[in-house]
Specification:
The complex is a heterodimer of chains A (495) and B (359).
Chain A (H helix, E strand, L loop, with lengths): L7 E10 L2 E11 L4 E5 L6 H9 L6 E6 L2 E3 L4 H6 L2 E4 L11 H9 L5 H10 L15 H14 L4 E4 L8 H16 L3 E6 L5 H4 L2 E6 L2 E7 L7 H9 L17 E11 L5 E11 L3 E5 L6 H8 L7 E6 L2 E4 L10 E4 L14 H5 L13 H14 L16 H14 L4 E5 L7 H14 L4 E6 L2 H7 L2 E6 L2 E7 L5 H9 L6
Chain B lengths: L1 E5 L9 H21 L4 H13 L4 H23 L8 H19 L5 H30 L3 H21 L32 H19 L1 H11 L1 H6 L4 H28 L10 H11 L4 H25 L5 H20 L1 E5 L10
Antiparallel strand pairs in B: 1-2
Helix pairs in contact in B: 1-2, 1-13, 2-12, 3-7, 3-10, 3-11, 3-12, 4-5, 4-6, 4-10, 4-11, 5-6, 5-10, 7-8, 7-10, 7-12, 8-10, 11-12, 11-13, 12-13
Amino acid sequence: MPHDTPLLACRGLTKRFGSFTANDAVDLDLHAGRVHALLGENGAGKSTLMGMLAGSRRPDSGTILLRGRPVRLDSPARSLRLGIGMVHQRFMLVGPLSVAENLSLALGRLLGPGEVRDLGERFGIPVEPERRIDDLSMGERQRVEILKLLARDAGVLILDEPTSVLAPEEILELYALLRRLAADGRAVVFVSHKLEEIGLAADEVSILRRGRVVARNLGPASELDPAELARLMMGGESGTPPARLRRAAGETVFSARGLGGSDAQGLPAFSGVDIEARQGEIVAVTAVAGNGLEALAQALGGVRPPVSGRIVFLGRDMDARRWPPERERVAFVPEDRHGQATVPDLTLRENFLLTTPGGRSLFPDFAGADRLVRRAIEEFRIAASGPGALARELSGGNLQKFILARELHKEAPLLVVEQPTQGLDVSAVAEVRAALARAADDAAVILLTGDPEEALALASRVMVLYRGRPAGWVDSGAPGALDVLGRLMSGLEAA
Amino acid sequence: MIRLEKRHGPPPLGGLPATGAALVLALVLGAAAFAALGADPLAAYAAMIRGALGYPGAFTEVLLKAAPLTLTGLAVALCCSLQVWNIGAEGQFVFGAVGAGLVGLRLWPEAGPWALIPACLLAGALLGGLWAGLAALLKTRCGVNEILSTLLLNYVAVIFMEHLYFGPWRDPAGFGFPGTAELPAASFLPVWPGTRLHLGLGLALACAALLLFLLRRTGFGYRARIIGHSPSAARYAGFRVERITVLALCLSGALAGLAGACEVLGMQHRLQDGLASGYGFDGIIVAFLARLHPLAVVPAAVFLGAAEVGGDQLQTALGLPGAVVAVIEAALLFGLLLGEWISGRRVVLGGADGGGRGQ
């Protein structure tokens, strides 16, 4: 094997889900002896790519090469037999069983405690065979997962966001371990958002944006500029948004002090957030995934109320835990369009009633909903056959316009919008942004987005959330605002 | 290469092919069971049809069984629309019977028919609903899986009823026979002249129509449908998911309880051994045979009732063991599950994956 042949590579790998292209002709080289970091925003296609390499997803076209030879990876078991192992974000361990029992399951034969200990020492991952997985820290569980793969002779290790569950000191340990495993001749690739630590962890970097590789095998990673990486990750979107409307903002609709809240698992996700929104204004909050943006959106949207803080809404002061006072007065467009904002298997008629007063009465006004849906279809130019169409039949952009139409119909004084253009095509992005700008004529709008360019394009002020805490506010008219945002988002700079 | 692939979206023709396939599969499985018992399957099926339809009054027997099956089938179907699984219709049926007995024997035995019948029916529905409500509270307050709690509460209910008619409610003039005294005649449901058919059938039909209205037209039904499809969307919309779940389980229990009360007031006229004869469990089969549609529950219940009445004929005509009816019912359910599985998939010809095209 010539030295420069990658251990694992892919050429022209493409994966589509319906009309959405998750991976578009992706080329990637993973070399033995190197740690490779894969960067990209949410929805950039990282997990899809990892899944294809690990055998859990099948590409629509393209080739995967192992030591220069094409291979067909049609199951995770097959990938693992060929020496390609993956550590998923959610660990594949049996909680009530011991470390030794979990390793035995993975290897298909019973291992004694001594054997397990030897195995751990051989790979430099000390483990206690008798301890239950449920009693281990996340970092310890991760090491058991890695040991499972090493015990099966994995030469390629794929880790999906391995640092997202770890405490800071555990992250450093993980990086050291990855480097050691690579030094032994393995190829290691991991998905990450943490730009500031890339130099510490990786030898080289590739970046995915909207399913395409925009930078391949950049390196050495320690010499890369995180701000430049951030710019490559976010990219300059081609769909030019409408010019930001400069208007005199009206009275303060919403003002929160010291908001704190938790994620879906009930773990603390953000704290100390102060945010104010005035009628006629869009304010934005932006963050890299995993920094509390999703939890803040669910809290402001009233789905998972904050656990601490105070909110003044339309002049009324209240405990943030009682938010929202009336659902009719807060409109919320969540990120999850299929499942939270709409029910895919139900009709547009039924989905429209989800948040409209007609749906709360003893007898829902289905006929009235039909009229409203028809009007929305016309006004927002939604491609749908009519009120009887199922939500799942609409494309992402049309469904998002439908949701926007429904939420704007409430004419609520506050509109909370989370990741409104994620996964949409260029024209839908422009339409959605234009609708948001129009909505801000009458309402106060809080926009939560992982895309700093979108935040700057639409909002007058942008707050950055980093590790669940406000890292600073940026006035979108300020010179170099995007650079400042990028640095704040990656934790490089405190404003 | 031919393979089955998961289908997205609803099955074709509203799932009718699936139900048809289920029935055919059930008949084939049943034929295999007959053959294994040494009987001629065709003769056995002929005997069943004769038993269910072949003589005057046979079909009224079928309808007599179909009435409680309709109510328990509706009970199961109602919960399923929220993706809540009520396996406890049997126990709720029993508590419905106990409720009718409580009013008829203890609380208000002297009342006239116009007061006593509605009171007994209401008490039955109420106790059935409360019994299901117990499982609902366990689910929403403590996170206990309702499949487990409703199933286990069945046994508690049956033992409780046995305690009543072996103990405090035992008929003093019953010569030690396990059962309560007969309820007052004022509690007997009106009967169609010349048959044993009682008002219970009418109530069951009315409940089917009411449930259809409840699920399709009312806010409760709308919210239940949203919860069944996506609890996340229901919370986004601000629905009180727990409260609606509790209400649905209680209503479901009330339907099963009504079936139990009708069985006491219309047929048995006392609490006794053999009252809990599996109508609650059979309701599960009925609901799924009807693909959870309230109106389709009625023919499904008639079908299952016919299978049971016809199955009794197998014992007398062919000398087959009585348990063969249960075997046929099981075959039906298995056939149905298989049909369901198939209708959720579509046949794909050729390999659709391009993972190895580079080879």
